[in-house]
Design brief:
With 292 residues, the protein is an alpha/beta fold. The chain contains 14 helices and 9 strands.
Length: 292
Amino acid sequence: MTKPAIGFIGLGLMGGNMAECLQNNGFALNVMGRNKEAVAATVARGATEVSTPRELAAASDIIMLCVTTSEVVESLVYGEDGILAGVKPGAVLIDYGTSIPASTQKIGADLAAKGAGMLDAPLGRTPAHAKDGLLNIMAAGDKATFDRMKPVLDVQGENVFYVGALGAGHTTKLINNFMGMTTVCAMSQAFAVADRAGVDRQQLFDIMSAGPSNSPFMQFCKKYAVDGVSDLGFSVANANKDLAYFVQMVTDMGTRSAIAEGTSSNLKAAIDAGLADGNVPEIFEYFLKLEK
């Protein structure tokens, strides 16, 4: 059976490796993006570069987005030369980023009016996993559309979860990131408070990690606060964006999360302190210097 033509927009660290994985598995790609070096590398492996989302959509059976925000997704879909203007009946848009569920649902409805489908399929794990097709993928949308896309998702992910109706993938990812980033902030401040109190950070880690507080996130925080190694691969700026989306999501539900609001406030303060591009455990530096 002929493999579907795939259009891929967003060739950053994650998206670039995802595109390479697809190419290594025999898929033909149409690509575009702001990172010209990444586009050139993908073209060198056989991809076709296009100039607009409309052109990309018209040439593709599956359109994959791995971009930063809901605003960027909407601009790609609704622009004058956007995906919606060029999408083919029967095509499917897959949003691999972390977006606002309400925005995802609106886009899905507008695509459906053109006879096209949509999945929101945010990702877990790292760019290294993306290159090897070992991502965790939280996919949501019409079940028949998911089943049709599953063979392609299986190329990209070791663990592919179907989590429900359109928007449920982004909801799940935002909940996951709320938990993770709140944990990192709490643990980073724990190390900072220990330092101020004269408690050895390594000893604090030894004690906490021997009990139920131990987790991969604690290991990431310890690597930075104790060993000076920053390798989580998720920036303070990205965490801040996701926490803001989580707060908006729960507000749209008619409730609130004071815990998320606190985490969001700390992330914003860390950005103001110049830590936007640092990995999230580097928020330790903000807590270490925090005054009344």
